[in-house]
Structures are given as C-alpha cells and as structure tokens.
Amino acid sequence: MPLDNVSFDRLVSDEFPLDESITYLNHAAVAPWPSRAVAAIEAFARENLKTGATHYPEWLKKERSLRLLLKDLVNAESINEIALVKNTSEALSFVAYGLDWKAGDEVVISDQEFPSNRIVWESLQEKFGVRVVFAKLMQAATPEQAVLDALSDKTRLVSISSVQYGTGLKMELTSLGAELKRRNILFCVDAIQSLGVCPTDVQRDNIDFLMADGHKWMLGPEGLGVFYVNKQRLESLQLTQYGWHMVKDRGDYSKDTWEPAPNATRFECGSPNMLGIFALEASLALLAEVGIEQVYGKISANVAALRTLLSDIDGIEFITPSDEDRCAGILTFTIKGRSMPELHQQLMDKNVICASRGGGIRFSPHFYTRRKDLEAAAQVLKELLA
C-alpha cells in the first residue's frame, strides 16, 4: 500500500537530511545514502570493534535478506539466480568471457551505451573474432526497431541499457525480449539506470542476464552490485574466476575435489563485501517500504516538474524524450549558444549537484527530492543564464 502524504513526508525528513546548502540532482551518478544505511554501517562497525566476527551467522542472515530483496526487485524466480558482484562491469565481463564464442559471431549494442557496455564487447573482437554492431537508436521508427534492424543470422547476443545514461532514453524491454527469445538470441540488460527507479521483471521481459551497481538509484555504497542469471543460462557461462566461495560445498575445507555451486553464487569467488551488504540491504528495505511503483511515480513526477520549470528558458533543448514512457529518472538538456561543460561547472559552484553527460547537462532527481529543490535548481540555472 502506498504511503500517505504524512508518512511519506516523515520518511523523507528522517531518511534524507541532506545539507541545506546543496541541491542534489545527481542520482544517475552516485546517490546519497539514507539514514538507515548509515546506521546499519555504524552498528556493523561497532559490533566489529567489540566482538569481531563472533556473530557471523547473523551476518549471513543479512546477506540472505539482501538476496531476497534483489530477487523481488528484479522479479527473479528465486535467489538462486542472484549473485552479489563488485560492479556492473564485472558482471558484464562474466557474460562476455563466459560464453563460447565463434569467429563471426555478432553482439548488438546501441550507439548510446556507457563505456561499460561497449568496451567489454569490443574487447572480444581481437580475441575471438566477435563483431560488435551498433544499433542507431534514433534512426528507426522506435529504438527497439533499431535494435531489431541491426540483427542478422550471426547475432548471438543483444546487450542494451534499460535507460541510456546520457539521453535518459528508456527502452521498452518487453516486446524486445519477446522477439529476441523467438529468434533464440541472448538478451543482456545493463540496468544500472533503471533498477531502483522502474518496476523490473526479468521473467516477463525474457532477460537472460541483468546487472546493476547499488550506488545509484538503489541508494547503496559503491563496490556492490547485482548479477541476475536466468537459471536456464547458468551452465552456458564458463567460469573465469575461482576461489573458496564459489564451490558447491563451501564450508567443507578438507575436500580434495570441488565443483561449482549449482546456482549464481558460482560467480562469487571470494569473501563477500559484508560492509556493503549491510548498507545496501538497508537501502533496498527502504525502497521496498515505499514500494517501487510509488518510487517510480514520484521520480517521474519530479522529472516532469523539472521539464516544466526549465521549459521557458530561451534556447533550451531537451535531449531526453518528452514521452513519459520513454524517460525514467534522467533529464538531459542543452542551451543554445552556451558551453555545457562551463555551465555545468557554474551549476556545481552554486551547489547544484548534477552531471555533464550526453552532450548536455543531466539532472537526475530521486523519489525523495523535494519540490523546493527542483525550483531552486531551476532558479539558479536561470540566474546563470541571465
């Protein structure tokens, strides 16, 4: 059930006591932590100070709770499809270097991808003779059609960002996933700009692999992310990292033989980032309390409000699509006749925390961002342009 206005306002006040001197519109880069994540880390640190790992079994319960929250967030079938990884790039590398490639195989990505979802595939060209094909998202009737137009009988995998980091373009994954399944093409989704923003359903969208860092929209720390692997694709990925933690009988250290874990933990070769686990678990519990549908609605409303507040600026051009079904938490824009890097720095100097991306300035509010902060950012921008 969505929080009522009073409960929502109290939660925002308690969880996000941001410094009043800044206006934070940079969640697509690195997000502030909520109070409960900070409290979780402080409690974990104090416990280590006093008792070390005496209560390690309780820590493992927190790890399981995080896996369950991530399972629900992506609608995986079970936690057996969830691996905890260092970051999105690591998970993409598990896929890229786990598949059995043949010379001439093709990978289709878009022409708007963040380097994480481009470099890893390009690295396969010299090593395995894999060709990377770029779908030009804005040169077809729809972005999804652009991806389909780029396919050939040699396409082995499509890897696409669910929301593009620069333009803020939101992909429609359901129809794309259905068509890729029909053609027996693997579907990999970099969800770093949508997980924690948009309702996500890996089963509905026929996604084989999905990955995301926790430090953006999931409001967690850097150094911990999620890797979803469809159980039917688990054995299709050769392992590229090995260690004590990724084996079937993890606690039996005396065994002379070993085999990989029968689930996604086979991609976790060593000791977990327990500090990060405590923090991210707390942050995801907060998102679950609010409800991802309400989170998405609040973020969408904030992006729409920003667009309205900025729309009367002379020479402004929005790079992010105006269709609400095509945007998530990002609003990127340019101003005719102005240097965007210079204007970005001026905004930062005025404590409007944002990013220079996609050829323009990128604002990215979260669900808790207050209306007065949106108005303040708009006012500062207008004063700088005056």
The rounded Rg comes to 22 Å
Mean pLDDT: 97
Strand line-up in the sheet with most strands: 2-8-7-6-5-3-4
Strand share of the residues? Answer: 5-15%
In N-to-C order, the SSE pattern is HEHHEHEHEHEHEEEHHEEHEEEH
- Assembly type of the chains comes to single chain
Q: Kindly state the number of beta strands.
A: 13
Tell me the domain tally: 2
Q: Which percent bin holds the helix content?
A: 25-40%
Q: How many angstroms does the end-to-end distance come to?
A: 45 Å
Q: What's the architecture of the largest domain, going by CATH?
A: 3-Layer(aba) Sandwich
How does this model look, in words?
There is one protein chain. It is built from eleven helices and 13 strands. Helix 7 (173-182) links the parallel strand 5 and strand 6. It has a seven-stranded mixed sheet, with helices on both faces. A four-stranded antiparallel sheet has the order 9-10-13-12, with helices on one face. It folds into two domains: 5-32 and 291-385, Aspartate Aminotransferase, domain 1 (Alpha-Beta Complex), CATH 3.90.1150.10; 45-288, 3-Layer(aba) Sandwich (Aspartate Aminotransferase, domain 2). The model has no long low-confidence stretch (mean pLDDT 97). Helix 3 (56-74) packs across helix 8 and helix 4 packs parallel to helix 5. The protein is an alpha/beta fold and 386 residues long.
